[in-house]
Specification:
Blueprint lengths: L9 E4 L2 H19 L8 H4 L3 H24 L8 E5 L5 E6 L4
Parallel strand pairs: 1-2
Antiparallel strand pairs: 2-3
Helix pairs in contact: 1-3
Length: 101
């Protein structure tokens, strides 16, 4: 039996504005189905005013997700062996490979 281990890190990168857009799209998709299930975490947002739910989601993005992105996630980018940069439609438009000697 042959066992091979890899130590390889991958970083998926995108502009923060796109990440926010994808986050809000996903949030709205969850709202579209959550109203059917009172046990669903998003139910309380789904049955209320959509504008209020979106306002809350934008606050979560700004105060939690964006903060984590800037303070904890982006600083690890330089340690990655490969960086995949995503653009609209989640398409990868650039691939960066760290060169080893």
């Amino acid at each position: 039996m042959f066992i091979l281990f890899f130590d390889f890190s991958l970083f998926v990168d995108a502009d923060p504005e796109l990440i926010e857009h994808w986050y809000l799209e996903r949030f709205e998709a969850l709202l579209d189905t959550a109203f059917k299930d009172p046990t669903n975490y998003y139910y309380q947002y789904a049955i209320g005013k959509r504008e209020d739910a979106i306002t809350m989601a934008k606050a979560v993005w700004r105060d939690v997700n964006l903060k984590n992105l800037k303070e904890y996630i982006l600083p690890t980018k330089s340690r990655a062996d490969v960086i995949l940069h995503k653009t609209t439609q989640h398409l990868i438009d650039q691939i960066y490979l760290k060169k080893y000697w």
